[in-house]
Predict the 3D structure of the following.
Amino acid sequence: MNTGKYTCLEIFAKKTEAEGRVRVISEKYGAAEKEAGDGYYAWLKFSLKPDADYEIFCESCEVSFCYLSGNRDMLETGVRFLEMDKGSGAFAAADQACWYDQPMREAYHFSPWKNWSNDPNGLCWFQGYYHMFYQQNPNGQEWSDMYWGHAVSRDLVHWRHLPVAFAPQQEILESRGALIGGAFSGCAAALEDEVLFYFTRHRESSRGDGEMVEQQWMTQSRDMLRFTEEKCVIAQRPAGASRDFRDPKVVKIGDTWYMVLGSALGGKGAILLYESEDMEHWHYVHPLLREEKEDIRCFECPDFMELDGKYLAIGAFMAHRDVCGRHQMSRYYVGSWKDKKLAVESEGWFDFGSNCYAMQSFEHQGRRICIGWVFDLYGEHIVYENGACGSMTLPRELHIKNGRLYMTPVEEIGRLKGEIIYRGGGDNVGLWHIRGNAYRAEVICRENTFFTILLGEDGEKSISLVNDRDGLRIVTKGVKSEGICFQADVDQVRKLEIFVDRRMVEIYVNDGEAAGTKIFYNASKEGCFALRAEASGGMESVCVGLMGSIWN
Ligand code: FRU
C-alpha cells in the first residue's frame, strides 16, 4: 500500500488472542507496532511517511475500520479507506464509487462508509465547507458505544469522509460491556474563526441497576480536525428533570446564546432552556416547552430557532407510538417567543414516513437547512457484509408559512439530475426497469385525483404511495412495517416530488407542505415507477429522471 499524500494510518483493532497487535512495516522506514484493544476495538494511530510503501499486519486481532489521514488538505481529499483482501490478508485502498454502487446502498443520500450511524451532529458551515458530524459505531452494524463520525462538503450534495472526531470514554471501552455510553449527540456553533461543539457524554451501567449519567461537554476547533481538551459545562440536570438529559443544541436569539436540551419533567416530554453570556457558563432558565401527550419517555435531539418571523422548536419523541402505529415521530411547534418560552400557536408532525429521526438544523447565508437521520425503526435493516445501517435525508430547507412547517430539498440537489426517462401526461405510467434504482419523479395533479404509485417491488415486498378517500399515505407490503399507516397531513395533493434512492424513498408534497421518508430494502439493481390514476385526465404531468451518485 502506498501512502500518497497521507501521513497517518488510523485502524480500529480488537484482540482475538492475548498477543493481538497491528504491525506496520516499510522497507525504507522500518516497522512500528501497537497493541489491539482487549475486549474492544482500540483506535490505533500510526505516523507514516508520505509517498511510501507500507504493509499492514494484523496479528491475532480483528480490524473493523481503517483509513489513511493526516495530509494537509484533508478537507479536500477526505480520508482514504483501506479494506483487507480476505485471500491475501493485504490492505488496499477501496474504490469509493464501486463501494457505494450496490442495490442496498443509497446513491445520493449520505451514508457512512460502513457500519452503524445515527443522529446528524455538529452541522455547520465554516470557512467554505459544510460539516456534518454524526453518531457512529465504526465497529459494527448495530448501535453501540458512540463515536462522532465526520464528513465535509463544498456543496451540501457531495460529501467526503473525514477522520472519526470523538470517541467514547476509555473507561467505557475497557469495561467489557459493564458500562455503555460515549460521545452522544450535540451541535456546533460556528463563529468567525473557531467552532464550539457541545455534546452529551453518557455513561450507564448495563447491569440494569439504573445508574445513568448524562453531562454536557464542550470543545473547540479552528481547523475542524483537531479539538481542544473537553470541558464539562453542565454537570447536573435541573431538579425535576428526568435522567434523560441530553443532546444540546445552541442558538443565538437577539444577542443571547441559548441551549436547548431534551428531557422530561413530571413524566412528560420537555425541552429545557439554558442561557449563557460567554458560551461556557450555562444557567438553567426553565422549560422552553412541555408536550402534554402521554407515553413519551423524553424529547431527544431538540432544535430551536427563529424562522420567517416566528419561532420553531422541533423534538423527537422517544419510545412513543402514534395513533397510526408509527414509532418515534418528531413533532414541530410554531409560535412566538414570550418570557423566554415558546408560546405554541400551531404544531404538526415533522416527517410522515416515520423513518426520519433526530433532525438537526443550521443556518447559513439566510437559509435554515436541516438533515434528519434515516432510522430503521421497524427492524427492516438487512445485514450484509460491509453494509451500513443508518443514513441521512436530503438536506432540506425549512420555512414557515401560515403557521405550518414547509420543507423542500435544497436546490443544490438539482445538480444530481440526470437523464429524463419519462415525460408526459400520465394517468397510467409503467416504468419497470429503471436502471440503478436512483431516480426523482415529479407529479403534478390537476385536481385532488386518487392514484396509486408503486415505488419499489422486490418479490413479495412492495412500497407504494396511495391517495384515496383516506388521504395520502405510504403503504408497505411484505415487510415489518406493513399495516402501519404512514399518513401525510395534507387536505389535497397538487404536487409530488418523489426521491427513490435504492433502499429509501423520500417524498415531498405540495412544495414542502409535508415530507415523508421510508426505508424499503430492494435487492434489485433496477427500480420501478408505476402510476395509476383513478380518473382519466387527473394527472397534469409526470416527469421521471435518473439521479447521479454523490460518491463519483
Ligand atoms: C437519538 C439518541 C440521542 C442520543 C444518541 C445516542 O437517536 O438516542 O438522544 O444522544 O441517539 O446515540
The CA atoms of residues 339 and 349 lie 26 Å apart. The chain has a mean pLDDT of 96. The chain is about 0% helix and 55% strand.
